[in-house]
Specification:
Lysozyme-like; 8 helices; binds zinc ion; alpha/beta
């Protein structure tokens, strides 16, 4: 729910600019300085084949006794009625099916048809992104899409959009799931950001694995080539008491310069022997 006093708060969604160059004639809607909006209602134009621009022009040019806030086709989106104004879109002469949703508290999106009065997947996809953008604007979350995003069919008994106008329409469910998925992604990361991050993490994991491998090789080099000449800080601390005991009892002696010349393997052997008591005095 949001109090709307900005007529054109959304300029762009999913790479599509919202065209506001061809607004509806004021004869086609109720004018308000602000209004409280809770619902988004999805329609189809019902024409055989049309475009957002066709519709924007049609409603621009005169009194039509109806209107919508947005017209969406496969490539373009035209906003026809400012969001603070109430389009004449969900009203009807029959009894309302929905207890609350009316023109005054809803935003209507009309999907254009791509032939045989069918709304194409491309247009449906674009509409899902526009719908998600509007959800974010008026405070509908992924968890409340099922309550606040409606078909004209849900508001009163009009077969609109015709291809979704049944109680358990799979197409309508898929549309709402798409809107929820967009909202969930954008509440956290966009799909693109997620993929970028995943790639970065994988790259870093590979680098860490390489470093571990290099470290292993270094340890190996130390263990096979390092020579310990003196019982000092260069010698591993675990070996020093054993080496000292071996020196004390004369088991190991250095060369003429006092260099012990012990390898890593020698250190381990001396420690083993020390534990076995060989260097006890
Ligand atoms: Zn409708």
């Amino acid at each position: 729910m949001r109090t709307i006093n900005d007529g054109f708060p959304i300029k762009q969604f999913n790479g599509i600019d919202i065209n506001t160059s061809t607004l509806s004639s004021p004869a086609n809607y109720y004018t308000y300085s602000s209004r409280v909006v809770k619902f988004i209602v999805i329609h189809y134009t019902g024409n055989k084949k049309d475009t957002a621009k066709n519709n924007a022009t049609f409603f621009h040019n005169g009194a039509r006794d109806s209107s919508a806030n947005y017209f969406m086709d496969e490539a373009e989106c035209y906003q026809s009625v400012a969001l603070n104004n109430a389009a004449w879109a969900v009203g009807g002469t029959k009894v309302y099916k929905h207890a609350e949703c009316r023109n005054i508290n809803s935003i209507s999106i009309e999907m254009c048809c791509s032939g045989n009065s069918i709304v194409s997947e491309k247009t449906i996809n674009n509409t899902a992104y526009l719908c998600a953008e509007l959800c974010k604007y008026i405070g509908i979350t992924a968890d409340t899409v099922d309550i606040f995003v409606l078909r004209h069919y849900d508001v009163w008994d009009k077969q609109c959009p015709a291809q979704w106008a049944t109680e358990n329409s799979a197409g309508w469910t898929t549309f709402k799931e798409k809107v929820k998925a967009i909202l969930r992604n954008e509440e956290g990361l966009t799909m693109e950001q997620y993929n970028e991050l995943k790639e970065l993490i994988n790259k870093q994991a590979a680098e860490i694995a390489d470093l571990k491998n290099i470290n292993k090789q270094l340890v190996n080099v130390v263990q096979t080539t390092m020579v310990y000449d003196f019982n000092d800080d260069n010698m591993p601390s675990w070996a020093r008491p054993a080496v000292q005991a071996a020196m004390d009892c004369g088991a190991i002696q250095g060369d003429e310069d006092g260099c012990l010349g012990l390898s890593y393997k020698d250190l381990r052997a001396i420690v083993r022997e020390y534990r076995c008591g060989l260097y006890n005095k």
